Automatic annotation (TrEMBL):
Keyword vocabulary terms for this entry: Membrane, Transmembrane, Transmembrane helix
Protein name in UniProt: HupE/UreJ family protein
TM stretches of this protein: 20-36, 43-65, 71-89, 110-129, 149-168, 175-193
Listed Pfam families: HupE_UreJ_2
Length: 207
């Protein structure tokens, strides 16, 4: 296996690893309001997220920017919670006579901004892998491609489940969004409350 293939695989496994499910939750939260027919909107949204995390992944891995890892570990579940909560305000018509859906105009720029935060999280893992590598451009590119492939797999699975439940099973799209977003919001809130930095900040405010 070449070095490129090795880092591509590591990137793919990192974002799809159930043990580090925070990034998985975020991608699912992005897709929760959509079904297969919304593929153009999903493409724009995922592209915005990709641009964001690609920039900070590169800058942080090259040590051009540095942010405390504990701060990033707290910010990531906050981005998940905010995205899930935003889903509740996505307008899905109750009747099929009205086809227009309305979501917040902030959804796309926020996906870009949140991508910047997730990219810093990815960089922490990649830097730990690089060790004494003399050139990091190829590993950086391969790892990022692996992340994108893993991200696309997650999107595909979410849309496939949505297609089965909403399009075939006739589950109301609003219900699918509310249930999925509610579960994600609850899990994100749990991550925040159990975060060491959050507990430290709360403890300081209570003193």
């Amino acid at each position: 296996m070449s070095e490129f293939e090795a880092y591509l695989r590591l990137g793919f496994e990192h974002i799809t690893d159930p043990r580090g499910y925070d990034h998985i939750l975020f991608v699912i939260a992005l897709c929760a309001i959509y079904t297969v027919r919304d593929w153009k909107k999903i493409l724009i949204l995922v592209t915005a997220f990709t641009l964001g995390h690609s920039v900070t992944l590169a800058l942080a891995t090259l040590q051009i920017i540095q942010v405390r890892s504990d701060v990033i570990e707290l910010l990531i579940p906050i981005t998940i919670l905010l995205t899930a909560v935003m889903n509740f305000f996505h307008h899905i018509p109750k009747t099929t006579l009205v086809t227009e859906e309305k979501s917040s105009p902030l959804r796309y720029p926020l996906a870009l901004v949140f991508g910047l935060i997730h990219g810093l999280g990815f960089s922490n893992y990649l830097r730990s892998l690089l060790g004494g590598e003399s050139s990091i451009w190829q590993p950086l590119l391969a790892f990022n491609v692996g992340l994108e492939l893993g991200q696309l797999v997650i999107v595909f699975i979410v849309l496939l489940i949505a297609f089965g439940l909403v399009d075939l099973g006739r589950v109301p799209k609003r219900s699918w969004n509310y249930i999925l977003s509610g579960i994600i919001a609850g899990m994100a809130l749990s991550l925040i409350l159990n975060d060491e930095l959050f507990q430290e900040l709360v403890g300081m405010s209570n003193e």
